[in-house]
Description:
Blueprint: H1 2-8, E1 14-16, H2 25-33, E2 38-40, E3 44-45, H3 46-51, H4 53-59, E4 69-74, H5 78-86, E5 94-99, H6 104-109, H7 119-132, E6 137-142, H8 147-160, E7 162-168, H9 184-193, E8 198-201, H10 207-217, E9 221-224, H11 226-230, H12 253-266, H13 271-281, H14 283-286, H15 290-296, H16 301-322, H17 333-366
Parallel strand pairs: 1-2, 1-9, 2-4, 3-4, 4-5, 5-6, 6-7, 7-8, 8-9
Amino acid sequence: AAWAFWRRIGAPKFHVAPMVDQSELAFRELCRRHGATAAYTPMLHSRLFVEKEHYRKEHFTTCAGDRPLFAQFCANDPSTVVQAAKLIEDQCDAVDLNFGCPQRIAKKGNYGAFLMDDLPRARSLVEALHANLKVPVTCKIRIFPELDRTLAYARMLEEAGCQVLAVHGRTRDQKNAKDHRADWAAIKAVKEAVSIPVLANGDVRNLDEAEALMAATGADGVLSAEPLLCNPALFRTRGESPAPAPEDAALGTLLLLSEYLALAAEHPTPLRMVKGHIFKMAGEWLAEFIDLREKINASSLAQLVEIAEEMQRRVRAIARESGRTQPVPAKTPRQLEREAKAAKEAAVAAAKEAQAMEEQLLKECDNVTPPTNHANPAPVASPS
C-alpha cells in the first residue's frame, strides 16, 4: 500500500519541508514553480485546528495545483488528531504527524520530538489515523543518539501504519543546523531497516547536496527547510529555466521575491508570513539598503511590493554603473554582529510570545463546551 501510494503521487523527490508560518500556500506554490515536486503545510496544532475556526482558516489554505500535499499535525491525543485530520483529508494527499519539533513550545505542549519519551503514545497516534482516514498517514522524526533506538522507533512507526517516513538526521538536542551536521549514515540505516518510502532531511543547501543525500542514503526523496527559504529555486534543475537577462543577473532571489509577493496577493497571506519571506529572500541586499529594511515592518502588502520594486531598481543601477552584483553591507561587522544578536533575542521573544498565544488559545478552548465532532470518526483507544 505504501509504495502504491508513493507511485500514485508521482514518487516526488524534492519536498518543501514543514515550517511554522513559512511553508504556507503562496510559498509552496513558488517552490513548486521552481523545482519542488511535493510540499508540507506548516505544522498545525490538532486541538486548535478542531476548536478554533479562525485558526483553521489562517493556517490551512490550499488550491487545485497544490499537490502532492502533506498536511502536518502535532498532537498527543489520538481522538483529537483524528477529528482534526478528518476536516481536511479530502484536501490533501496524506496526513503527517510531527514527531520532530525540538522547540520549547513542543516540550510545553508534549508533542513533536518530545513524544520520543513516550513511544506508546506516538504509536497510538499513528494507529488512530491509519484506522480512521481515507488518506495515508506519514511521519517526520528525528533520530535518537543511539542507532538501535532509532531503528526500533522507525520499525514501530511502520508497524503502526506509517506509509512514508521522513527522517531528520539530527537528535532532539541538535537544534542548530549550523553547529551540527546531519547524520546521513543514520538515515541510510533507517532506509535499510524499513520497507516503506523514506525521505531524508538535513544539510540540503543546494541541488547537488540534495542529489548527494539521496545517493548516500538510498532515500526516495529529500526535504529542505531553511535553505529553501533563502532560495526557493533550490530544487530547480540546471537549464530548466532560461537564464535571466544580463541586466537582471544581479537580482538573484529578488526576482523570486516579486513572484512570491504576487502569489501572496493571489492567495491572501498574513503579513507576518510575507515579511518573514522578504527578510529571507532579500536579506543580503537589505543589509545595504537599510532605509528599505526599516520600512518593512510597518508596511502593507502593496507597500511591500513597492519596496521590492525599489530594491530591484537599485540593484540594476549598481550592476549597470559599477558592475557590482553582490551587496555591500552599510554597517560595520560589529554593528551587524550586534544586530544579529538582537535578532536572535527577538526570535526567542517571538517564540515565547507564540507559546503564550498558544497557551491562551488552549485556555479559551478549556472554557467552552467542546464542539460537535464534524466528521464522527470511529472511536479510537486512548493511549495507556
